[in-house]
Amino acid sequence: MTLSLFLASATQRLADAGIPAAEARTEARILVQHALGLTREQLILRSDSPVDGGQGALLEPLLIRRANREPLAYILGERGFYGLSFQVTPAVLIPRPETEHLLEAVLAFSPPPAALPPPAALPPPAALPPPARLGSPPPPASRRGAASPPSPPSQRGTSDQPEGGTEWCEVGGGKKRGALLDIGTGSGCIAVTLAKLLPEVQVWATDISEAALDVARENAVRHGVSVEFRRGDLLAPLPPELCFEVIVSNPPYIAPAEAPTLEPEVRDFEPHTALFDPSLGGDGLTLYRRLAAEAPARLVAGGLLAVEVGQGQAEAVAQLWREAGLAEVAITLDLAGIGRVVSGRKP
């Protein structure tokens, strides 16, 4: 069998398992490349080359796993996010493109001084923008979404000396400008990416799962960043005196009643603690209510609270933010026109 026929056979097996045709073609190609150690160009150039039994044996277990609807990211152990590659295991939610809108809401609030390239074109680590300070003026508008980013208050400048003592946080005997918290960090894709892009900012991250934190720590090491990871529920594991300039979260927001409607890749493989509202019979908003009640007290004046939300939840979460006393509440749309990020600032 030639390599092209081998690929066609793999594609058909995935399609027969219920994977949409276009997705089956792409994923079969990726699995063949992964199993045989080929680049895409090599796959094309060697399309007429014969495939032996040993090569077929390398691919077979991968095809079985994907035909059983195990997500491709878990099979490969990798997932791209904002131009970086992250380790993923079944202990963590697979990073999704929609979550990049949440990251960009933070970058709009505290942008790197240089223009940020699109995710697919992020420069290598040595060429990343110089350190940014939380509270720097945002660009005129976010590169994505429908809402203009909130502007930091005028009294919070970018000088090297803090004005009120709240902009410096002590970490390991040293000091960094500003503090940012990622609640429910999972793989660490948000926290690690922000630590990479904003190296002068101290990034903290919490999660209830030690297995997830192990993955997040590995990703921090992989990308050469320092993140303070803590295990616990929301803000509970953090020093009580510590306040933040940014709190960001992508909490579990799927109502348990919606489980039967989910694709098997999600329902049967991704961690339910990262997917579903933790309350029995919950409506998907339980953790947003808790964040609205708990997070503002841990923000400095002018600080940002930004969260990812599910389809149809944006207005309800925005109202929770308003009732919590947050100002400049904004909803950012994703590329499909769905409200995806809700943000607000502490007055």
Tell me briefly what this model is.
The protein has 347 residues and is α/β, with parallel strands linked by helices.
Topology of this protein?
Layout: H1 3-16, H2 21-36, H3 40-45, H4 53-67, H5 72-76, E1 78-81, E2 84-87, H6 99-109, E3 168-171, E4 174-177, E5 179-183, H7 189-197, E6 202-207, H8 210-222, E7 227-231, E8 244-249, H9 264-267, H10 272-275, H11 286-294, E9 299-308, H12 314-323, E10 327-333, E11 339-345
Parallel strand pairs: 5-6, 5-8, 6-7, 8-9
Antiparallel strand pairs: 1-2, 3-4, 9-11, 10-11
- H and E string: HHHHHEEHEEEHEHEEHHHEHEE
Report the sheet with the most strands, covering strand number, pairing sense and barrel closure: 7 strands, mixed
CATH topology of the largest domain: Rossmann fold
In angstroms, what separates the terminal alpha carbons?
A: 67 Å
What structural class do helix, strand and pairing data support? alpha/beta
Which homologous superfamily in CATH is the superfamily of the largest domain? Vaccinia Virus protein VP39
What's the CATH C level of the largest domain?
Alpha Beta
Strand ordering within the main sheet:
7-6-5-8-9-11-10
Based on DSSP secondary structure assignment, what is the total number of beta strands? 11
Poorly predicted ranges (pLDDT <50, ≥5 residues)? Answer: 112-175
The whole-angstrom Rg is 22 Å
Pfam families: MTS, PrmC_N
EC number: 2.1.1.297
Domain Methyltransferase small: 176-256
Keywords: Methyltransferase, S-adenosyl-L-methionine, Transferase
